[in-house]
Each structure stands twice: as C-alpha cells, then as structure tokens.
User: What shape does this take?
Amino acid sequence: MKNLETDNRAPKPAPKAAPMAGGFFMALGMLGGGAIGIFLGESSAGMIIGLSAGNVIALLIWFRDRRNSGDV
Assistant: This one.
C-alpha cells in the first residue's frame, strides 16, 4: 500500500472558482451618472444616482456568485 502523503499522483481537491467582482459597475455607474448629470445640470445628483445603480448591480452579482459557490 502506497503512502498518499508522498504519492504525487494522489488526487488534489478542485480549486474554488475566483469570486466575481462588481466594483467595476460601481465605478462605471458613478462616472456615467456624473456625465449624464452634467448634461442635465445636476452632476452631484447624477453621480449619487449612478453610484446607487452600480451598487445594486454589484449586490446582484455578489448574491449570484455566493449562491453559485455554495456558501449559502
């Protein structure tokens, strides 16, 4: 019988998938909202609304990733 600790052919556990990132959508929402807000004359409001929309998308990605990884 071979020792599995020294046997290089022993199966290794499958690596976990890298978590998905949603920070891009937060930044994109803030920049896009600010740009749209400039055209409407309310750059701060546009930036806050864009950041909020980006946060919602990032949370949806986080929930989906958490459900798919089996952490729930």
Notes: Residues 23-69 form one domain. The mean pLDDT is 83.
